[in-house]
Amino acid sequence: MKDSTATLFTESTSEQARQVSSQVVGRRYVQIVEVLSGGPACIFEVAQQMGCFDHQISGRFGEMERLGLIRKTGQRRVKPSTGCHAEVYEVVGAADGDVSGDGEYPGAGDPGVRDPGAGGCVVGGS
């Protein structure tokens, strides 16, 4: 039998941080896709539905776009609080009605993936 305490103290802090970070990022991906599955939206609109600030999730949008999970629609909307124009995003396949939600996104369906990040973004939060 392997001693689990040995791993706790021999695993580098960097490795532990990487593991936690990947779980948080995976959960954010799932939350963003869940919101965008309801229809195209800007980052500030997604953040509002998740109960967090747009700067807390904006980095994920570029990553998700590069991974081919989401895309810009070509539309822009005005953010009421700033008057700035913001890109509108949609889930890839959404224009074709193909939003399967089949768990292909990182962390999807994994009950062990939690989001301990600042702001406590939760889909459906207010």
Mean pLDDT: 73
Rounded to the nearest angstrom, the radius of gyration is 17 Å
- Roughly what fraction of the amino acids lie in strands? 5-15%
Q: What is the CATH class of the domain at 8-95?
A: Mainly Alpha
- The H-and-E topology, N to C, reads as HHEHHEE
Count the strands? Answer: 3
Strand arrangement, major sheet: 1-3-2
Structural class: alpha+beta
Set out the fold topology.
Layout lengths: L3 H7 L2 H24 L4 E2 H8 L7 H9 L3 E9 L6 E7 L35
Antiparallel strand pairs: 1-3, 2-3
What's this, in brief?
With 126 residues, the protein is an alpha+beta fold. It has helices at 4-10, 13-36, 43-50, 58-66; strands spanning 41-42, 70-78, 85-91. The protein has a 3-stranded antiparallel beta sheet with strand order 1-3-2.
Written account of the structure:
- This protein is of the alpha+beta class and 126 residues long.
- The protein has a domain of 88 residues: Orthogonal Bundle (Arc Repressor Mutant, subunit A).
- Helices cover 38% and strands 14% of the residues.
- The protein is built from four helices and three strands.
- Strands 1-3-2 form a three-stranded antiparallel beta sheet.
- The longest helix is centred in the N-terminal third of the chain and has 24 residues.
- The radius of gyration is 17 Å and the shape is globular.
